[in-house]
Amino acid sequence: MSFKVAERRIWDATTTLEALGAAEVALWHWEPEADRLRINGAARALGLSPLAPECSSAAFRALALPQDRAQAEELLRVREAGAEIVVRLRMRSGGVCIWRGVWLEEGLRAAGVIAPEVKFAASGKDELTGLLDRRSFIARARERLTHDGVHELVVADLDRLRRLNEALGHERADLVLAALGSRLAAAFPEGSILGRIGEDEFAVLCEPKGYEPAELLRTALEQPLRIAGFDIHPTLTIGAVSAEGGEDAPEAAELVRRAELAVEAAAANGRGSAAAYGRSMETDGLSRLALEADLRGAIGRGEIIPYFQPVVRLSTGALSGFEALARWIHPRRGLLPPDEFLPLIEEMGLMAELGEHMMRSAGKQLAAWRRSHPAVGALTVSVNLSTGEIDRPGLVHDVAQVLAENGLPRGALKLEVTESDIMRDPERAAVILKALREAGAGLALDDFGTGFSSLSYLTRLPFDTLKIDRYFVRTMGGNAGSAKIVRSVVKLGQDLDLEVVAEGVENAEMASALQKLGCDYGQGFGYAPALSPQEAEVYLNEAYVDGAAPVKARG
């Protein structure tokens, strides 16, 4: 037997896979045109068995934790031949893995190796913040949990980090993260274990005595920052879990997973929310895959429709218009809230299709109301442009077409754009916004006050409306910083002759406070949640018969 023959027998496919499994390593191979990701080796040990031996890109995205979806997209992104890939991913059914590889042929395929993060980690400290990195945090937490007593683990996710990176650039965004790390280190008593366990995640393990860890963390980190001339107002989504220490204490990595699951649950309630871990948060990833399958074609089948939330003039209580918000009427599961399907739509690349559908459907409904209710006068409808949709080819043409086909006057259809979309390329955005304005659209700057951008561009862009982010409206009664921001935005709108809409109005007290500041309009659960077209028409009729839209006395 020749050496080459013996060599082939030794390294046959079975032996290779056994070796990879023993080393807790897997190989991956990605073919974009076939939408096929292959995984061989220690798939089970790495928590990747639902994806092995092959899966689609949608299944891969679904298994990644929501906080790591951007990294999953980075792995799938087509690059030139020879480009290297290094991605850190956390999966729902496993731990943290490093995916390394290279593009072998431009746009055709990429391949590489997957291994647990601990096999690559070389330092116990996060270089940016000086806090413990994920591996060291878990190691220290594992040791601490052997001690008797009640321990609490809090994980905080910095909201809108992606928008921060887009608006400020990575270097300035890193300054924000470094500052938050310093604040965290100064806030907690000696003996607390502090870490930066993800790109946008901070964690604390402590034995709370005389303080509430989640509130202490929020108080320390949600203070305004000024970075390179930009005012930053950080908000955090927080998850917490408690555990008894000692012999029966849970594994530290499992405790971190539970806290991150609580963060995910809190995020469903909006920015700045918090949640404590509960068994009900455990979900089956297969149900998510089934939902993705149902989502394909749902827009074309007419299952996703606009619901309408009233916008009210604060000075008179008169109904001014509606904001159109997407809702999915699932054939088996009924009405699904946007948090359950909008992230999937974005991952599947369907946001542009949804945006056009919402604009056309909302415009058609508005025209019907204006024809059947002459008293509605200047009733408007607002539609959100999704991230990147401002650059969609045909957007200006579609706006003009919707207005013309439905006989709507200029300004009746309002488009809401986020700050991050503008700041990615302000000069290009100015050209597109001007064209949209000339086509007849009203323009609103959404979530204004989040503080990721300079105010100078407002004087150069053709907006007619500012919308104050609901977080600041909701907290202005008990947070001096939020109250100052609301006052400043209202005054800015007055100075620039822009209408100001406050989101998140929960009761008459909020509405009255906003009116006293000079805010023009309000919307929120205090008036009504998003209503079906039939419910919105009833609301419209009642508002005009009564002369004012009703507002709850208390939230």
TrEMBL record:
Membrane-crossing segments per the record: none
Signal peptide start-end: none
Pfam families (alphabetical): EAL, GGDEF, PAS_PdeA
Coiled coil residues, start to end: none
Any one GO MF annotation of this record: cyclic-guanylate-specific phosphodiesterase activity
Gene3D superfamilies: 3.30.450.310, 3.30.70.270, EAL domain
Name of the molecule in the record: Bifunctional diguanylate cyclase/phosphodiesterase
Ranges where the GGDEF domain occurs: 149-279
Ranges of residues in domain EAL: 288-544
